[in-house]
Write a structure and sequence with these properties.
By secondary structure, this protein is an all-alpha fold. Helix content is about 80%, strand content about 0%. It contains five helices and no strands. α1 packs antiparallel against α2 and α1 (about 1-25) runs antiparallel to α5 (about 80-90). The longest helix has 26 residues, at about 1-25. The radius of gyration is 16 Å and the shape is elongated. The model has no long low-confidence stretch (mean pLDDT about 90).
Length: about 100
């Protein structure tokens, strides 16, 4: 879960930086930011989506919550919410003890 939490934060941050780079590309003639951040964000996005599916057994998310987490990946700050509310909640829940 820790990796998913970190990727969630990185993906959201890279998205925000990519948005800033896109503005700079158009207003300050600075395309290099998009050239660098575009692929970085793309990889983080794909990893976020893969981790959302792979960690489903641990999170015990319903289909609806998984869908919302996937939708969050395309909204600029929503992965921060996923990390803070849903993934942290899973980390703080004690694991069931097997007897």
């Amino acid at each position: 879960m820790r990796v998913f939490r970190i990727v969630s934060l990185l993906e959201a941050t890279s998205f925000l930086l990519l948005l800033v780079a896109s503005v700079l590309k158009r207003t300050a003639d600075f395309p290099e930011g998009v050239t660098v951040l575009g692929p970085v964000h793309g990889v983080l996005f794909l990893v976020y989506v893969a981790l959302a599916f792979m960690s489903r057994p641990q999170t015990r998310w319903s289909n609806g919550r998984l869908t919302l987490a996937l939708i969050a990946s395309v909204l600029p700050v929503a992965p921060y919410f996923v990390e803070r509310k849903w993934l942290r909640e899973v980390d703080e829940t004690p694991a069931p003890s097997g007897a």
